[in-house]
Each structure stands twice: as structure tokens, then as C-alpha cells.
């Protein structure tokens, strides 16, 4: 979890600091939000270049940034920019849910980006077991992100832009933290279940 948490911090902190730093310097809400969006995209681009490949997860992040930038260029209204970025973020819910039926579940792709390769051959049936677990996890993340998107939209239209931006960040981090905790719990239970099944098979 440590590299995952570090990655989330690096994703969130620079755009947030840039936004409130520029607002404190008297820059307009629109320019501050657009700058924060660009900074978030730079981080995604750096990760893709560093890995020397654009895996499906990195591709999703790049698409997210590209659409956010397109929204920023299409409107000069700060509130609508936040709405557009929130809706773009909601695409993540669709991607997570879609990955349950097409290709590899997105949570499995994320896990494989940070796990240590042991070099050991997987046990028979392990790949299918992992897929079933990650289908459940991806579905959970998809539903959670969809709910978070709806809550963010309600916040944007209920508060001022500056307040909504900060509250949305807190809500987003809270949702992410809860989803990550549940993910860890489910992963540990799945590992224990797999170890039990393997012991029964070996006996």
C-alpha cells in the first residue's frame, strides 16, 4: 500500500497547492483550475514516460487528463470547468465497471504495476481465482466512484467555487481512503481463502 499511497499523494498535492497558491496570489478561479488540471496531466505523462510504456491504466489516466484539458479550453466558467472535470472523472467509474466484462479488471492492472515480481510460476487455478477477486474489486470501485461523482456534482452547485474545490478534494480523498481500506481487507481475505484452498488440494 505504501507505493500506492505515495502515488496518490503525488497526484493530489501539486494541483491542490497550485490552485490555492494561485488563488491567494489573486489569479482567477478559471486560470487556477486550468493550471491544476495541467499539473495533474504532467504527473500522468511523467509516469508513462518513466515506465516506457502506456499500459491500460496509464492510458485511462492520460484520457482523463486530455478530456479535462479539453473541458478547460472549451469553457471560461470556473464552475462549469469543475463540473466538466467531475464528469470526466466519472468516466473512471465506467472504466472500472467495463473492465469487469472486457479485458483485465482494472484493479488487477493497478496491482501488477506495483507488486514485486517473484518469478514463481502461479499455481493451477490461481489466475482464474485472481480474476474473480479483481472483478469484485473493480465493481466496488466503479460503484464507489459513480457515487462520489454524484456527491461532487451536488457540492459544486451548492457551494462557492473555492469552497467546493477544497471540499471536493476532501470528499474524494475520503472516498478513496475507504475504497482502499475495503480493498485491502478483501484482498487479505481472498489470499487467506486461496491459501486454504491450496492446502486442501495438496492434502
TrEMBL record:
Domain of life where this protein originates: Bacteria
UniProt KW keywords: Membrane, Transmembrane, Transmembrane helix
Transmembrane segments: 20-42, 54-75, 87-106, 139-161, 167-187
Protein name (record): Intracellular septation protein A
Organism ancestry: Bacteria, Bacillati, Actinomycetota, Actinomycetes, Mycobacteriales
